[in-house]
């Protein structure tokens, strides 16, 4: 079947032809490229065309596709069966690895997706504090659970409105929205509602409005406010965990979190995520405590095996200096090319994640990100695709490098 025939057939059986909306290429006025296989930093479509991949499973393939160590471990795990719905030694091994490498992770629970990790961490925070309100930043994405599907706050102070049909105003009425990097806004919301706030949830480096790093003092102010008002600080590190160093960005920014959510890089690309924190909080979870959280597939042997193999490889090979260096080369190359072409482009980069905004203004929040020229990104995206570079099919997504991108591939881009 041709790529277009596959897509048309997909549309007959799957809403919009895809299992996650951004894959539809609608944000760039295009059609998805059905992929046949992947290895290292390359993808091949169903017609055998090769692309240099800068999506990398949306950040989950930090070692590269079909990494030999992960593949071997998965192959040998497979023959044992893969979902026992019972405790395994591998779950213990992965939990020990995570607790040994992520600061403030005294206990951890494994789940299947980042959505579940954040949703469960929030439930735990509400139970621990006995409060209901959650502070979220505009432009941060924490998965598709109801309470997090809130759009930009309207004129009505910090009140949130759902950004998805099917989510009721009630379901988001306990989510307070503040612009990213807005310390004053955060202080104000705490002055008004501090005693009701269970937790702040934040992407410590935002990656879902393009890359927006935290400004100096933003994360530490969040920590200070949580301390002052007795709220918890939840770092959603589904993207950032194990991406910039072997562990959590708490150590990069010198800011401690009460609960940390992990996914993507630690998952090895299988459905695996985690949330954890101090014992006193985590022991609120059933069966020890009264906070219910569960999963038929949680901790299944295949996903956990991919996670362990990935973490072991990351720890041994330490790809982080290479990832940083390649990120820097890519940023410099794009900025120089844009300058040569006389185009207004801002490159936001943090380590091995990067995004480009067609604007001459610095981008520090969602409003700034939305102010960039998405039509220009669309043109750029399709021209890059024609030249064999597979970028995120949306101007508001991050590009990800992996350990399998060498300097020559980055220069190729
Ligand atoms: N949190 C962040 C920061 C994310 O980027 C994502 C997904 O992109 C999620 C949570 C949700 O993770 P999942 O798609 O695995 O449910």
List keywords for this structure.
413 residues, alpha/beta, seven-stranded mixed β-sheet, 15% strand, binds pyridoxal-5'-phosphate
Would you kindly provide a written description of the structure presented here, covering whatever features stand out?
The structure is a single chain. It contains 15 helices and 14 strands. The radius of gyration is 21 Å and the shape is globular. Helix content is 37%, strand content 15%. Helix 3 (68-78) runs antiparallel to helix 11 (301-317), helix 4 (89-101) runs parallel beside helix 11 (301-317) and helix 7 (183-193) runs parallel beside helix 8 (218-229). Residues 152-157 have low confidence and may be disordered. Strands 4-10-9-8-7-5-6 form a seven-stranded mixed β-sheet, with helices on both faces. The chain has a four-stranded mixed β-sheet with strand order 1-2-3-13. The chain is of the alpha/beta class and 413 residues long. Strand 11 and strand 12 form a beta hairpin. Bound molecules: pyridoxal-5'-phosphate.
Secondary-structure topology with pairs:
Elements: H1 3-13, E1 35-39, E2 42-45, E3 50-53, H2 56-59, H3 68-78, H4 89-101, E4 107-111, H5 114-129, E5 133-138, H6 169-172, E6 175-179, H7 183-193, E7 197-202, H8 218-229, E8 232-237, H9 250-253, E9 259-262, E10 273-277, H10 279-282, H11 301-317, H12 320-341, E11 346-350, E12 353-357, H13 366-370, H14 374-386, E13 389-390, E14 399-400, H15 407-412
